[in-house]
From TrEMBL:
PROSITE patterns, per database record: HAMP (PS50885), HIS_KIN (PS50109)
Any GO MF annotation of the entry: ATP binding
Function comment: Member of the two-component regulatory system HssS/HssR involved in intracellular heme homeostasis and tempering of staphylococcal virulence. HssS functions as a heme sensor histidine kinase which is autophosphorylated at a histidine residue and transfers its phosphate group to an aspartate residue of HssR. HssR/HssS activates the expression of hrtAB, an efflux pump, in response to extracellular heme, hemin, hemoglobin or blood.
EC number: 2.7.13.3
Originating organism: Oceanobacillus polygoni
Keyword Phosphoprotein: yes
Protein name: Heme sensor protein HssS
Pfam hit, one: HATPase_c
CDD domains associated with the record: HAMP, HATPase, HisKA
Source taxonomy: Bacteria, Bacillati, Bacillota, Bacilli, Bacillales
Domain Histidine kinase stretches: 245-459
Topology within the bilayer: Multi-pass membrane protein
Record InterPro entries: HAMP_dom, HATPase_C_sf, HATPase_dom, His_kinase_dom, HisK_dim/P_dom, HisK_dim/P_sf, HssS/ArlS-like, Sig_transdc_His_kin-like_C
Length: 459
């Protein structure tokens, strides 16, 4: 019973059999408590009528009379005063009956064997063809009192019906089993497809489409499975793209370092050229170092960040510290910095959030021409703290905005490469926002600058 198909069949059949047994037992209880007393009264009335009809014509033979009555569907057990017993009709399966009951009838009383028949589980008693399961009445034969015991001949009265019910029950069970076999295949078939699809996904094949057109739970499961497969396919594509980008970003400075190092070893050149080559090697080495640090940061952010590291701190002081730290950069380009940051306390991981402000302000400085302006503004409401970094720089095209926070995405690859950009800064910013339960949005237009808005929840 290892497969779901077999389990469904076995469980369904077990339920059907158990239900049949319970229904039979319940029916038997109902018969014992309600139908058996009524049946006893009915047979008693019939037995009294049979006696009355005979005693109205006492000259006829009792044997011929009872034999004729058997054609009406009854079985008789007649006990003479001498103790002899005669059976008329279908023989009883058991003729045992206590003498006290027989003497009780001889004294003019009625024996209610049907009503007093002992209760047996799963045996209704209605079909037990025994003398003690009869109605006993006194009958006068040639002036002597005899004991006449009467019960319906169930075989004669209900023989065809019993066969009909038996055939009906057998056919119902048979067809039920056949339908269970068929319907179970219908239920299990999409599950088998899901199992096969799971194996394919485990083997690395994420491009799957399940042909399951159902609206029930299994259909919804198949749809969710297809959605998961598509999500895994996109994740795998991003993973491969990420590996390709990392390889490319690492390979480029390594090639430069290797080429200029060989040139320094093999060629004769002036001291000025040597210094230029060494400066290039140093620059590429710094770019490699920055790339490795950012990759390590992303790796740490992808793992779970402990919220116990979140502490309350002064956001305004942190922003001022970042601006002062980068003073030589914006002063060199004669960029005006405008700070509108009223005292604000937030809860978060200070080092990570500092990296957010450094990245956003550094980008604003990098892409703002000399004489431009950068505005940093904070605002609070009941739920969020907003930090806005606005510049008057070159702006970002509308087609680049949707991919701006993707890893290794660069708006101007030729320009950013000369400035040691790795394309990971904004993706790190977005990840830090996700860790803090915040968001980052950007609005920009070519030639008119950009506005980055960071929203952090008030905790």
């Amino acid at each position: 019973m290892r497969t779901l198909y077999v389990r469904i069949i076995v469980m369904t059949m077990a339920i059907m059999i158990a239900s049949a047994l319970i229904a039979f037992a319940a029916t038997n209880i109902y018969y014992q408590h309600f139908l058996k007393p009524e049946n006893d009264k009915k047979v008693t009335h019939i037995a009294e009528n049979i006696v009355d009809l005979f005693e109205e014509n006492p000259n006829q033979s009792i044997a011929d009379y009872l034999t004729a009555m058997t054609d009406l569907g009854y079985t008789f057990y007649l006990v003479t005063p001498e103790g002899d017993a005669l059976t008329f009709g279908n023989p009883f399966s058991s003729e045992h009956l206590d003498k006290s009951h027989i003497n009780h009838v001889f004294h003019g009383n009625t024996y209610h064997g049907i009503a007093n028949y002992p209760w047996k589980p799963f045996v209704t008693g209605f079909f037990d063809n025994e003398v003690k399961n009869t109605i006993g009445v006194p009958i006068q034969v040639n002036g002597d009192t005899h004991a006449l015991f009467v019960r319906p001949n169930s075989t004669q009265q209900f023989g065809e019906m019993r066969i009909f019910l038996a055939i009906l029950l057998v056919l119902a069970l048979l067809f039920s089993f056949l339908l269970v076999l068929t319907s179970s295949r219908y239920i299990v078939k999409p599950i088998k497809k899901l199992t096969e699809a799971t194996r394919k996904i485990a083997a690395g094949n994420y491009h799957l489409k399940l042909d399951v057109n159902r609206k029930d739970e299994i259909g919804r499961l198949a749809n969710d499975f297809s959605t998961m497969s598509s999500s895994l396919a996109r994740t795998e594509e991003k993973r491969q793209e990420f590996v390709s980008n990392v390889s490319h970003e690492i390979q480029s400075p390594l090639t430069s370092i290797q080429g200029f190092s060989q040139a320094l070893q093999e060629e004769e050149m002036s001291e000025a050229e040597q210094q230029r080559y060494l400066a290039i090697i140093e620059s590429e080495s710094k770019r490699l170092s920055a790339l490795s640090k950012q990759l390590l940061t992303l790796s740490n952010l992808d793992s779970e960040v402990d919220i116990n590291d979140f502490v309350p701190f002064d956001l305004t002081e942190q922003l001022k510290e970042v601006v002062l730290t980068m003073e030589w950069q914006w002063r060199e380009k004669q960029i005006a910095i405008e700070l509108d940051t009223p005292p604000t306390t937030i809860i978060g991981e200070p080092k990570l959030l500092q990296q957010v402000w450094v990245n956003l302000i550094a980008n604003a400085i990098r892409y703002t021409d000399s004489g431009g302006k950068i505005s940093i503004h904070t605002a609070t409401d009941k739920s969020y703290v907003q930090v806005t970094v606005k510049d008057t720089g070159i702006g970002i095209s509308e087609e680049d905005l949707p991919q701006l926070f993707d890893r290794f995405y660069k708006v101007d690859k030729a320009r950013t490469r000369t400035e040691n950009s790795t394309g990971l800064g904004l993706s790190i910013v977005k990840k830090i926002m996700e860790v803090h339960g915040g968001t980052i949005m950007v609005e920009s237009e070519l030639g008119k600058g950009s506005v980055f808005t960071v929203s952090l929840p008030q905790k």
